[in-house]
């Protein structure tokens, strides 16, 4: 075979992998959409059901408990029925949740349907990185794995664009009537459309060759590998079999080590928790109400939330461009340092807020600093931890424990997410500047943790992970 033919074949393989990885990443789009769409509806939900800040926090965070559950069970299910089947299950749950959330009778009904959607989010957040890592060539795995995060931030942006468009159509308020439903109900219902597309795509993409080898379906694995890998399929199948160490399915007990779980699992769990403890989702879950608290009108606060999502997308594109060039660890170090400074500045700006009769206002110059520093925080997060955490969780574990370890790491991420989300309304009411200083401290802690404990994974095959 000539050099040109080899190059052409390699290009064809990469194009095929990009397409199926993009289809799998649609679960990330729904992940971002579902977790952010509630942002534009928070005020309307409080008004409609007559609930306070604490119960609102519980309702918003209810989805995150479902996400932790979904992530925890996804690995075991994926090892039994396959990666693509699990994607289909998640898609169906997204559809059910979207319809149920749009038609609640009480705030408790809404919380329940948010939990169902959360289970779908947890499953999608685990299976997307796992599937993409298992089909991606090592040289492109970082960039292809980054598609998950790009899809997440696009989902966040689209949800905020939809929220803004719907609110504008109803006169600028999420509480207003729009046809047979309130505007906030339409915000939650629209998610059923991309969920249906996800269900169709998950039904046509090929199964992971590593799952097929584990299941003993070697002919199917060979067929998939011939479409996604440029090297000999039989050689690759043997490498996968050797790395798996047998055909026994992974169990959580396989993660046990001297200190509860294996050291590599502790590192993955810590990375997953620290990604949330910097407070990133406060920006996306509560940004519209946060800006309203400093005097921004509801319609403009939704627009500011959309601006934040654009910053998030730009940062994610930067990370995709750099993750396979400079590596995972340098990106995390720069991101942690940038987030620490940006969060400290945000806390400093909000320390100049004035509170009169429960209404919070910021002088113009400090409001401008808060907007710039919060946007810088989002950029540094998106250009580092937003992308790299998901790439690492998909690739850092040895093949024999990957599904179970990834499930545990993803569940840890969602539990940390829940803790931050459910505590923020009370912390905001207690002392907003100090809340941001606490998040800055966690960002600084993440810097020291990465430097001390994280090993670089750039350019290594999945079968090499855990060998040194």
Automatic annotation (TrEMBL):
Transmembrane segments: 14-33, 53-74, 86-105, 111-132, 144-166, 186-205, 259-286, 302-323, 330-350, 370-393, 405-424, 436-454
Keyword Cell membrane assigned: yes
Membrane topology value: Multi-pass membrane protein
Gene3D superfamilies on file: MFS general substrate transporter like domains
Key words of the record: Cell membrane, Membrane, Sugar transport, Transmembrane, Transmembrane helix, Transport
Residues in coiled coil: none
Pfam families noted in UniProt: Sugar_tr (PF00083)
Residue ranges of every copy of the Major facilitator superfamily (MFS) profile domain listed in the record: 20-458
Taxonomic superkingdom: Bacteria
Gene Ontology MF terms: transmembrane transporter activity
Localization per record: Cell membrane
GO CC list: plasma membrane
Main location: membrane
Family label: Belongs to the major facilitator superfamily. Sugar transporter (TC 2.A.1.1) family.
This protein's name: MFS transporter, SP family, sugar:H+ symporter
Organism listed in the record: Actinopolyspora mzabensis
Lineage: Bacteria, Bacillati, Actinomycetota, Actinomycetes, Actinopolysporales
